[in-house]
Every structure is written in structure tokens, then in C-alpha cells.
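BUG: 3D viewer hangs when loading the predicted structure for this chain

Environment: internal workstation, default settings.
Expected: structure renders.
Actual: progress bar stalls at 90%.

Input used:
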Amino acid sequence: MATGPPRPRQPRPAPRTTTRDPAEVARRLSDWLDAQLPGARAVDVSVPESNGMSSETLLFDIEHPEPPLRHCALRLAADPDAYTVFPVYDMARQHRTMRLVAERSDVPVPRVLWLERDPGPLGAPFFVMERVAGRVPPDVMPYAYEGNWLYEASDAERAHLEEATVGVIAHLHDQVPPAEAGFLALPGEGSALRRHVAFQRAYYAWVVDGLPRSPLVESAFAKLGELWPRDEGAPVLNWGDARIGNVVYDGFEPAAVLDWEMACLAPPEVDIGWIVFLHRFFQDLTVRFGQPGLPDFLRRDMDFYTLYAALRHAVIMLRVAYRQVHFGEVTVERDPDTLILHHDRLAAMVQGDFG
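C-alpha cells produced before the viewer hung:
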């Protein structure tokens, strides 16, 4: 009996990212703005469709006679009642990183305006930055889907976007003195790469504390030891969440680099492995739903670093899935590895298949 092609796995429901009331946040934001600029208020407050899974972003305009109307974005530490993706949200660290990058490189970062350390005004620390106009490759539906502006671009336009984006990362690594980014050094002993991996092991232990462990993630950690690079390279300032979905583009040129909460000191290949794997993640999702995607985009052969990126992303995905379990959006499956969206890809990489 003919069965036809396999049906794609049904996606899990979109996980909630906050328990905050947007209208209440907007009111409290206007109260806070009035203290910074007497007479100012926040208008047209909205949550972007691409609001992340960790820190929250609000878009708003400032209505005030002096200075004129400002288009702003606000990064708010994650809601502690929403089963946070990361254990710590250091908004002052992100603010400091963006100022350093702006001062010591030509990497385009939004100008930061205010840092609020007091959780009182909005329920958590936050900072405000100018909003940069442009377009962002979406996560939902993935930018590799037909009909998306990046998919519909010409080969030359995509090649320019890829080259320009990797160039931005290279400028970050080359231009910001690591000595001035010492506040981003991860704790522990040994090289920057070994500290980075140890930090990820600690994060994984936090994610699975009291919950089913992932045999797949643990096998991936073991595989890293087999592939460990002989030359780890000198540490540089890593963007941390280096991916095209965190860039605002003017046409096909990077206009603003966003989301610095994972910034750290690490070898440059950690950033490159992340941007390469994150494209592969969205490419695999696209192919799973019967579309060709963009198979020739952002390809590099970096077995250790792409495996490490896949492993890091798996731990984040596991935390997101357990958050959905916490809110009753999904149920715990017998095999916790299946909670990781890209578990098939990660399992293949652990077995040595990096195709």
C-alpha cells in the first residue's frame, strides 16, 4: 500500500514569554519617562512580532516637545514569573557592552539612551535605545521560506548580505580590544574556550535540575572532547547570539546589531559556528515542511564549533520546552531528547555526520 511522503511533525504551540500586562507596562513606562524628561510620555507602545524567548522588547515613541519625537526600543529583563530561559539577566552588562562596541568599533549598534537598574518602575531592570529602521529576517515563519524577502532576493543580494554580516562579526572581533571587555570574561579556570564550555555545562545542569536529563545533550558534550581544537585561538569579544535574525538590515546592508545578552570573551570561531548552525537550524525546519529553503547560504566546515553551537542551542530549546511544560502548554515526553526541535540534526552530528 502506497504511503506517500512523511507528514511533517506538527509544531508545538507558541510558548508564552511573559505574564506581564502590556497596558500596565505602557502606563508605568510613561510614569518613568516623565521622571527622565518632564512632560514626556510613551505612545504607540507595542511588542514586536519577533519578541525573543529571553529578554522582552517593547517598541514605543516618546512624545515630548524637546527633544522631538524619538523612536525607541526598550529591553526589559525577563519576567521572573515566566520560567526564564536564563538564570541571570544583567541589563547593565548588556548596556555596557553596547556602549563599548559603539565606542571602539564601526559595528552598527543602536545608541543607548538610558539604563534603569531599579526593578521598581517596570518590575525588572531595563535599558532604552534608539530604534533603527529596517527589516529583520524573521524566525516565524523562517526567513528561508518561500515568499520571504530574503528567500526572494537574488543570489547576489544574499551573497552580499552574508558577506556584510560576517564582516560585521570580523570587525567586532578585530576592533574591540579584549582587555577593555574583561568584564565579559566567564568565570572559572583554563582557556577562554574551556571556560565557555564549562559555563554551558553549568547552564545545562541548571536547566535539568529536578527534571529528566537529555542523553543526547550529554553525548554531545562527550563528543566535544573528541573534536577539541589543537589551536583554540585567542579570545575576542564575542557577540554571543550571532545570527541574521538579530540584525536590522537597510536593504541588504547591516544597519543595527541587536541582542547582546550572550556576549562574552571566547575564540572568534564560537560566533562563526553559531551563525552557521542557526541558519542550518532554520533550513532544516524549512525542509521539514517540504520547501527547498536556502541550502547554499551561510555554509562553513567547522565541525567542533558547529557541533558546539548545536549543543548550546539544544540546551536553550530544552529549557524553552520545559517552560512550556511548566505552563501546561505541552506534556513531558518519555524521551526528553524529542523536546529538542533539532534533535535529529544533533544526533547525526554526534555520530560524525556534519553534512
